[in-house]
Amino acid sequence: MSVTPEDKIQTGFMRELEPVVAKELDRHLSMAREWFPHQYVPWGEGRDFDGPLEGEAWSLEQSKLSHEAREALIVNLLTEDNLPGYHHAIATVFGRDGAWGTWVNRWTAEENRHGIVIRDYLTVTRAVDPIALERARMHHMETGYEPTHGDSFLHGAAYVAFQELATRVSHRNTGRASGDPICEQMMTRVAADENLHMIFYRNLLAAALELAPNETMRAITDVVKSFEMPGAGIEGFLRKSVVIANAGIYDLRLHHDDVLTPVLRKWGVFDLTGLNADGERAREDLAAFLEHLDASATKFETRREERRARQAARRS
Known about the structure:
Helix content is 73%, strand content 0%. It has 316 residues and is mainly alpha-helical. The protein is globular and about 65 Å long.
């Protein structure tokens, strides 16, 4: 198989950035706190289900969570469930050698804990229908995961920098929306991991921006404009995402203000000097898209408040 110029460029990026990966890996390991999923699950609430153990079948009234919190937790868990697909995608881009491979495996191990603890909590507390959840897991994993950025290193690194922060925000707000102190404590712990992952990827791409500013700027713009959460392939995702957005757990305003804006500000993309014509065009495209997204977020907020006002009027 022939090696393209793009392959050579990417190989060069990977080689020059490996010391950054090693440094960020050391930083991550020094900051990551060991924790155990079983300590965040109220096992005393558990009892047998119907089936071989002839326990009690699940019914909706057993759940103490709101509809919105249940939908958010299902999306969060099914997203975490697709970890094998994410591992394959990130290992394909980053490789399995040296500091790159060490990070990929460490990241995978940490992410796996998230699915373990959320599923155990949902099952023990009977928060969701376990049969429907398992069927949804099977469907989602059989569908698989195909990254929108392909095997481009710069696009992949840009994507995970935003995605990890988006996941942190979603997990944290889901915990708050649950109304259950145990769930909130659990989701806060999971979100803390996601924040450390975001810092790793954010710092990695900052180094890439110094190394290849024009190519990295284009990758950032492409990712921002086409961004979708990794759980977008979940069956019924659009309907669930509307419920989640209407509840204020994750919506366009949060995506713009709490995810895109702080990462872009940290990178200083709008203060960067020395870009060539291609880099400037990418930055202009990015600015135009952010302006459009901001307007769309404002429109959504206005309509949501109008809906809430109408609902409150009907209730009164």
